[in-house]
Amino acid sequence: MLKLRAATVVEILRVDGAGALADRAGEAGAGAGAAAAAEQRLVVELTSGERAGERRPAIADVGLVGRADVGDEVIVNVQALDLGLSSGGFDVVHVNLTRGLEWDGARAGNAMKLNYTSLQHAVAPVEGALLELPVERPVAVLALHGQLAGLAWSFAQSAPDGKLGYVQTEGGALAGGHSRTVRVLRERGLLAGHLTAGAAFGGEGEAITTAGALHHGLRNLGWDAAVCGPGPGIVGSPSRDDARSTLGHGGMVALDSAHVALALGCPTLLVARLSSGGRRTRHQGISHHTLTVLDLLLEPVTVALPAGMRSPVGADLRAGLGAVFGGAMPGRPALALDVERPVRITRHDWRRASIDLPAYAASGLADEAEGRRLTEDPLFFSAALAGGSALAELTEQERPRRQRTSKNDISADRLAGSDRVADL
What we know:
31% of the residues lie in helices and 21% in strands. It has helices at 19-26, 62-65, 79-83, 148-158, 180-187, 210-220, 253-263, 288-296, 317-326, 342-346, 357-361, 378-423, and strands at residues 4-16, 39-46, 55-61, 73-77, 91-96, 111-113, 121-123, 139-141, 164-169, 193-197, 205-207, 225-230, 268-270, 274-275, 285-286, 302-306, 349-353, 368-369, 372-373. Strand 2 and strand 3 form a beta hairpin. It has two domains: 4-105, CATH 2.40.50; 139-405.
């Protein structure tokens, strides 16, 4: 059930992606070269409910509810902040009663996102081109948004001329304007585009499906590779610390995204969730979330590990894992190695990839994930960097094949043209 309260805007802290405000107000589409959505960070004072008079942080998606000013009367959703969720430390503006009722921020189009909810809005889907298979351009699949910056930076170091696009899926924040990481990566040219798929919205292009987003980005926008994963924050159900696996976690969207990429004929890379500093045993070393996805996948994928690590897979998965992560380290216990069906984990293409953790640390990009800094959990960031290096390698491997396919298509077209001339 929605938990809504009346409030008054008392302060505008900042506007993220402010350049997009003019784009949305003056055009039926997103501005090029920057994240399409703008998000305001506000302070509101509740005027109804049991906490009336309390001042609280809030966010407003300008593309949905319009721009707020100090003194505006708003209705905010207080559910996440009241629950104390780690990824929901703010209220969300549901409607601006002062000026938002006149706001018309919908893009041209007649397909709905968030359909049959009070926030349904019209978009112009990117899907429309004929399906061309196989796509044959690589896709990296993330479990967490915190892996995005490291992967994009590492990809650019290994493939400086490569165009990498981002497809935001469900599993975390749905609003495309909520990610400061995406804005910074776009500004620095480390991402060539940002599409929001499924229930996610507010990117530079809207896709009804993840398949449609990947096909559009790789076929129509000319991306050399794509990275696919949830927005900031994550959805998760409570589970015991010693639970072997859980399906109630937003990171499980990686399973769906990987299957989509494989179905499109894309070389598919799963970015492993690794941790050397996580407080929960099931996420230390290789997270049980990654192992679960690798177990359930219908086809093998590529998995990258930072160079210098001994592979955690081999003839015996438990022995391989133990060789890398089994020993207790200062500040953390030994990794629980009770992994079922090891053969289904070892069937994947495990690769070592070179990384430069100090250079990334000096890049100025996001160096904190899940409340831990890079120095506190270097393995988490190393895994993302390894994913970027491996993705660049896959991109280079696919270039000759695509070029051969393109030449064959041209030759076929010329032959068909000759036949038509002869027929005439």
